[in-house]
Amino acid sequence: MTRYSVAILGATGLVGQRLQELLWNHPFFDVEAIAGSPKNVGLMFEELEWRLETQKPSYDILICSMSDIPDVDIAFSALPNNVAEIVEPSLVARGIHVFSNASTFRRIAGVPMVIPEINPHIMDEYEGHACATNCTVVPVATAIAGLRELGIKSITIFTRQALSGAGWRLLFDEKALSGDVNPLIPGEEEKMMAELKYLLEIDVPILATCNRVAERDGHMVSCGVELESDPTLEQVEQLMKIQSLDLPSSPENVNEIILETPTRENHLWAGNGMSTTIGNIRVEKNIVRFDALSHNTIRGAAGGVILLAEFAVQEAYITK
User: Fold this and answer.
1) 166, 116: one domain
2) Pairing between strand 206-209 and 276-284?
3) Which of 219, 223, 267, 295 is catalytic?
4) What is the CATH number of the domain that holds 58?
5) Catalytic site includes residue 129
6) Is 164 left (phi over 0), alpha (psi -120 to 50) or beta?
7) Chunked in runs of 10, what are the mean pLDDT values of the chain (320 residues)?
8) Annotation says 219 is catalytic
9) pTM greater than 0.85 (yes/no)
10) Number of domains observed in the structure of the chain
């Protein structure tokens, strides 16, 4: 198996550290560089503050600056938007394949935004730069992608998004953890609607209401889908079962279908954090309602972008 050298852009943010965690001993990728902000440049990896609840990997790496990223094959970006818009194109120009979690280039021509199990053909637009999606879109898109077969007329979405979706600082904020959190997420609803239409290649009315809640991880969504026909519950459940991919990060089931409403306590780590759990499915004539949960920093961020790079390797969008 051909192996690919990798740089991780983002040393201390939650998504950057998820990338570090998930790429440790990866069967395709070898991490050769981790780039961080100026205050972290020159530190050994072991000196970085670890902000995840999981075990810290053991890279023997000196943190480099964004201007000193070596000539690796692939760069995984967890950069803030204002930094990503400068750094990512410069790496692509050097011939480095960039897979980004930043929203800066999503839905930009020539930079495909892909969930490999849903819209893999969009990678035909790939020119060395690709994006994962907004973390909140994942449990909606994976749940309803199969329902397109029945004709989607409209979608309503209500979200309850975890603190980690806003970065590591809220996870260390006593007020937020105790429940005193601003529920508003500026721009999230517009982003959700636009990205969902792009991913599913539909142009139907979508109403989204997005809220932050005092939970560490996991984005929960409650959705209503108006269809052109009246399906049975069994038909809906069957259409929600998406074919998994044969890749290192692929879960056995992209969607785990359960009877009850998913909970973070029981379902956050389904498929090692890469599955969406869908439950409380109700069908009334042509309306399908359900609740879904996915892990926002894994499937919705670091794991999703790694899966996309694995797919690019498997399908020879990247070669050596």
Assistant:
1) no
2) unpaired
3) 219
4) 3.40.50.720
5) no
6) alpha
7) 95 97 98 96 96 95 97 97 96 98 89 97 96 95 98 98 94 89 95 96 98 97 98 98 97 98 98 98 98 98 98 95
8) yes
9) yes
10) 2
